[in-house]
Amino acid sequence: MGEILERSRLAIRWGGLLGLLCHPIYFVVWTYVLPQPYDNLFLRLSAALVCIPLIFQARWPQRFNRYLLIYWHACLIYVLPFVCTFITIRNGFSTMWMMTEVMMIFILALCIDSPLLLLACLGIGVATASAAAVLSAPSPVVLSAASQADLALLPVVVLCSMAFSYAVSKGHIFVEKNRALQALASSIVHEMRNPLSQLKQVFEGIEAALPSTSAAHRSTMLSAEDAASLHRHLAQGKLSIERGLRVIAMTLDEVGSKAIRPERLAYLGAAATTRKALDEYGFADDTERSKARLIVREDFTFRVDETVYLFTLFNLIKNALHHMAAYPSATLTLTIERHAVSVRDTGAGVPPEVLPHLFNPFRTAGSTGATGLGLAYCQRAMEAFGGSIECRSEPGQFTEFTLRFPAVPEREVAEYEREILDRAMPVFAGKRILIVDDDEHHRTRTRRVLAGLGAVVSEAGNGQTALAMLGDSEAEPSDLVLLDVNMPVLDGYAVAEKIRANHAHPNQGVPIAGYTVEEGNVAQVRARRAGMDIVIGKSGGAMGLIVALETLFASGKRRRAYGGFDGLLGKAILVADDDVFSRQVAKAVLERGGARVMEAGHGHAVLACVQSDMAIDAIVIDMNMPGMGGVEATASIRARGDRYALTPIIALTSQSDMEAVRECIAVGMNDVLVKPVQAATLYASLMTHLARVHTPTHRTANADDAATGDGQPADENALLDERHLDELVGLDMLDQTFLDGIAQLRALMGEIANGARLQDIEATHEALHRLLGVSGNIGAKALHTYGRRIYPPMVEGRWPLEPEWVERLGALGARSAEALEGYFASVAALRPQLMR
Fold first, then answer.
1. What is the side-by-side order of every strand in the sheet holding 340-345?
2. Which domains are assigned to the chain?
3. Are strands 332-337 and 340-345 parallel, antiparallel or unpaired?
4. Are 575 and 622 in contact (CB under 8 A)?
């Protein structure tokens, strides 16, 4: 109904105006200019009067808007089919009045774009008019032969008008769809203009700050002032990019009606989170920033998704600044009071006729090129939070959006904080943490929080003292350094740089968290440059500090298990590919992981490297190369009786068909990766196979499968490859794709069982091959090992000889899937922030 009303508003306004004018005019014409046998002044004037409210429908009270569509159709019935048919009958169905009746039907079809509704309105109007005309006529109406012929045409006219109405409705849908798509594209372009303009200014600022490299100015040294300027420009550039991505994400989320997941909601302080929005918003300049202020009358706790809440405020701030542009003295005020956040600007205001429809998609308050999707997103976000959004405005005076949030019981907040503390205690217990802060009061308060979780806390009042404490080789290494970034003597950035730059420093790899009240984005850029792992705002309170440090400890654990970016440190890897670009990409990825990379352009060059007794830990080789491809080169290497025969060989290929993969595995390649290969995939594959090479039991009799004769693992832990799973966590790949992999594993088990039942060896072979890839990549160690054991006969077109291998494989697959789901759940419970 809402869509029909929006589509009909223009027709309602103009239809009311035409009805008001036409009926009195026609009465004068048919009575005095071209006299007709019958007309009725009362009918004409009443039809004109009922049209007056339609002309002023934009000013209807809000509570009556729901009845507008009903009133519109009631008016149409009375003004067109009732009045016209009544007068036509009283005029004896003359030719001129029959023409009027036909015209009336098509005018009605223009106003109603639903064929069935058109037929209903016509039927009601004609039936009531006929009854009224017959009852009021002084004598029975006698139809002439010509009139009867004219009446016989009316059903055809009605059918044509219904077809016309249907065509109009389809046209409306097509136009609205195109308008929506055009508005979406226009919105993204319009909204992206500001961040891209800011990014352009950033590059211009960087260009101005960089030293000249011309012959006349050979010095490329940066002054401290220029370096600080570059950091500010980089921070602004990063913020501009993030704002652009937020605009796109918000627009696409709203168009796709993407749900806001309740598990992402967290208990946050309204004042601190709103202040963060002001800090991170990309104001055009300091003048624009000075117009905005935050007033905290009464802080409160709300349960929101922080990112979505920030999006909501960004949109309201952006709208306010847009409408304030023409008012130099206008101000923007964000106010925090009990369970509400208001955003008020003293700009242009919103017209009264727009205000009731402000939160409808594709309705705007005069922003050229915008779609109004932002306010629709804000409304949907507040509904997801259990709250509401409303707008008050006086044109030329102010506009105020108020976000109202449901009250969060103190008991609920206390339970949430208790969950955080209970989860954090095992993580912090026994951790050696150094707090470095020149503010003794803040340092003492932080120490009490961390010591209460079981951490062993030490303190330093400045950066120089901290360096001396951390550099003491006889002291126990620290597990974490919490650095205030602004301190006298030596600030936190300088302390972090000195720790990271000294490879002999006993705490060179210690996790470092910056603690700051600085503007978030600038601090983030400077902190990363100095070597800090994370920056925490002091305004976040004790709970924010605990959650952030818990996340840092979790990521540090994964980094140690996975090796971070140096997991291939010291490994010599030969990359063979006839495509130079592909070689360079692979080389860059592997060197980032700390590997020493050698290159070869064909298989003969690979064999030459092996013949020269070069140190090679692994080979990444293209399957198809001129002269000698990867398959032939691998066959030659595997035929050797020396150490190279066990070297992990990873195939790169553009072919994903079964024959190509089968050929690679048949000659002894360890893995087959289809181009274009993701860096994380290549890295994980190499780490997995290098670890297997260096396992003492590698390739010993029956140790390869780590399972008993019945296909069951020797112990429960052997179900999963813990090392590989740690690598997946380190690569941030333990997400929905991991769960999809588990689902795929279950599906493949079903395909294998079905193929074996039907004795379809080709289908079973293909499913088993895919199962090997999935199980190996997902960390189902025992299943992968057992699958490899029964796989060789199927390559040759024979069924495995082991009895009941299908049942054993199925049981092992089911247990592996359950174990993987349990692993995923345990990791998700330990890192709620990272699973967002």
1. 292-296, 332-337, 340-345, 398-404, 388-394
2. 2-142 (no CATH), 259-404 (3.30.565.10), 410-559 (3.40.50.2300), 563-687 (3.40.50.2300), 695-836 (1.20.120.160)
3. antiparallel
4. no
Three-state DSSP string of 408-459? CCHHHHHHHHHHHHHHHHHHHCCCEEEEECCCHHHHHHHHHHHHCCCCEEEE
Residue environment code for 400-412, b if the CB has 16+ CB neighbours within 10 A, otherwise e: bbbbbbeebeeee
* Alpha-carbon span 211 to 227, nearest angstrom: 11
Which residue in 610, 672, 597 sits closest to 646, CA to CA? 610
CA distance 666 to 654: 18
In one-letter notation, the amino acid at residue 545 is L
177-223: pLDDT as tens digits: 555 555 555 555 555 555 666 666 667 667 666 665 444 444 555 66
Regarding pTM above 0.85, the answer is no
Q: Which residues, given as ranges, of the chain have pLDDT below 50?
A: 213-218, 362-372, 557-565, 695-717, 731, 832-836
Contacts of 137 (CB under 8 A, 6+ apart): 89, 90
Sequence-distant (≥ 6) Cβ neighbours of residue 770 within 8 angstroms: 748
Residues in contact with 279: Cβ distance below 8 Å, sequence separation at least 6, in sequence order = 519, 520, 521
What one-letter code names the amino acid at 451?
A
Cα 785-791-797 angle, rounded to 5 deg: 180
The torsion angles phi and psi of 236, rounded to 5 degrees, stand at: -65, -40
| pLDDT tens-digit series, residues 678-718 | 666 677 678 767 766 654 333 333 333 333 333 343 333 46
